[in-house]
Structure prediction request, 145 residues.
Amino acid sequence: MRSEWTRSLPSVSPETQRFWDACRERKLLIQQCRDCKKYQTYYRAFCCHCWSSALDDVVVSGEGTVWAMTVAYQNKTPGWADFVPYVLAAVELREGVKLMTNIINCDPESVRVGTPVKVTFVDATDEVTIPYFEPVQGDTTKIVA
Prediction:
C-alpha cells in the first residue's frame, strides 16, 4: 500500500506525456536528435544542440554518477518538511546528460560526488510515477521517498 503523496506533482504536457507514461512502466526516457545524434533532457519540441525537430525517445539504462549534490536540512515547502534531510543532486547518466533529482533509499550523509547511482521509481499516484535515483551500493536503512 502506497503512503499518501504530499508533495506537488509534475505538470504533464503533450511534449512530456511520453516521458511520464514510460515512468509508469518503470522506464527512463531521454530524447536523442536524429540529425546531430546528441541526447538531451529535459523534454522539448526541438534539439537544444542543432534546433532540429527530429527527436526520438530513447530508453536509457538509468545508470550514472552523482555529478553535484547537496543535503537539505531544512525545507518549509509544503510536502517537503517531513523528508529532511534529503539529497538534491545532479546525476550524470552514462549517455552524458545530467538530470536534477533526489537520491533516495540511503543515508543522505553517505552520498558523495562520484557515487554510482541507478534510477528507481516511486508511485506518487495511480497516474504519476516519479523517477528518483539510489546508490548502486550503500546503506538502505533510511528511505527518503
User: Anything to note?
Assistant: The longest strand covers residues 63-72. Residues 88 and 102 are 5 Å apart (CA to CA). The radius of gyration is 16 Å.
